[in-house]
């Protein structure tokens, strides 16, 4: 494999990127000044050293002195846990200022056709988090699913309801979903603050 093919292979591993797009990225780098390629590779290396995964909500954040991100340390309400698919969904909800509880980033959705749960999804961590929060002094009262309105989002929600049902019986918290006032296919990442507020208020 020559170096063009090798770099193309690396880009092809990115989510949603096919052979042709990967080839365009390689071509862009070949035409760019050498300084661009150097800074790109240094930035990629640096991000692995400066960014860590929050021990509580699992979003990635710029490392400081704590293993827990500021969204988690500043959460006023510890009785609610909002489950989202990805970091960008969490950012959108956080910046809309419509929710003051704790978050949990699942890291993906459960594929509809796949039977084994061997994808990048934090199911074990979710069970652990729900159990810990249920046993904490300010006990967990509600778990809110906040996934995009797609077949895969709904599938994930149903599967997680099954997964959490034993803990739900044991600790008595409720499981709710965002109100369906938002249109089908809507991505949480792009919803405006008013729509998010309505969806949270009309959860059921
Ligand atoms: Zn966090």
Task: Please specify the SSE layout and strand pairing.
Elements lengths: L2 H10 L6 H13 L2 H17 E3 L6 E3 L7 H5 L5 E5 L2 H10 L5 E4 L17 H13 L6 E4 L5 H21 L2 E4 L15 H9 L3
Parallel strand pairs: 3-4, 3-5, 5-6
Antiparallel strand pairs: 1-2
Helix pairs in contact: 1-2, 5-8, 6-7
The chain binds zinc ion.
Overview of this structure, please?
The chain is built from 8 helices and 6 strands. The chain has 204 residues and is α/β, with parallel strands linked by helices. Helix 7 (151-171) links the parallel strand 5 and strand 6. The longest helix has 21 residues, at 151-171. The protein starts with a helix and ends with a helix. 22% of the residues are buried. Zinc ion (ZN) binds at residues 54, 56-57, 59, 68-69, 71-72.
């Amino acid at each position: 494999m020559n170096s063009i093919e090798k770099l193309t292979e690396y880009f092809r591993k990115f989510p949603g990127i096919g052979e042709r797009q990967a080839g365009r990225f390689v071509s862009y780098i070949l035409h760019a000044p050498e300084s661009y390629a150097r800074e790109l590779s240094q930035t990629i290396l640096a991000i692995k050293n400066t960014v860590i995964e929050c021990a509580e909500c699992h979003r990635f954040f710029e490392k400081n002195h704590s293993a827990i991100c500021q969204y988690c340390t500043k959460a006023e309400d510890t009785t609610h846990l909002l489950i989202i698919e990805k970091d960008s969904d969490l950012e959108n909800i956080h910046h809309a200022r419509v929710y003051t509880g704790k978050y949990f980033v699942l890291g993906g959705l459960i594929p509809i056709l796949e039977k084994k749960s061997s994808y990048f999804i934090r199911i074990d961590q979710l069970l652990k988090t729900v159990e810990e929060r249920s046993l904490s002094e300010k006990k967990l009262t509600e778990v809110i699913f906040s996934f995009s309105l797609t077949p895969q989002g709904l599938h994930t929600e149903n599967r997680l309801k099954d997964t959490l049902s034993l803990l739900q019986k044991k600790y008595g918290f409720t499981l709710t979903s965002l109100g369906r006032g938002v249109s089908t296919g809507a991505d949480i990442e792009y919803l405006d603050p008013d729509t998010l507020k309505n969806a949270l208020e009309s959860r059921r």
